[in-house]
Amino acid sequence: MIGRLNHVAIAVPDLAAGIALYRDTLGAKVSAPQALPEHGVTVVFVDLPNTRVELLEPLGEGSPIAKFLEANPAGGMHHICYEVSDIRASAAQLEAKGARILGDGEPKIGAHGNPVLFLHPKDFSGTLVELEEV
User: Which domains does the chain have, with CATH numbers?
Assistant: First the structure.
């Protein structure tokens, strides 16, 4: 069902500092910041030869990333994203096997303009999993 690793997401308390770390210290190519109000985040993507790293900063008071950073003030790994060819079929298969879809169960449009869903971390060894239809 799952395809390739799309990205690993890291929550950061200061996006500008995260950008500088990856661009200036590690020499990586970093995208321009993109605000995603529906998800409560501002993101950038660090392009790597085999995948991407997504840096997330809270956007707005209700941001789930703000809550994550309260528990992890220095930041840290937030989720891992896998590609799927059909998000609705994948969600149906997962739910049939007992996995829980977060939110209302309906895909939302993610940073790449594609539908995304999140899976409950308790169902995946404590890891928040994002599925992205590509």
Answer: 5-133 (3.10.180.10)
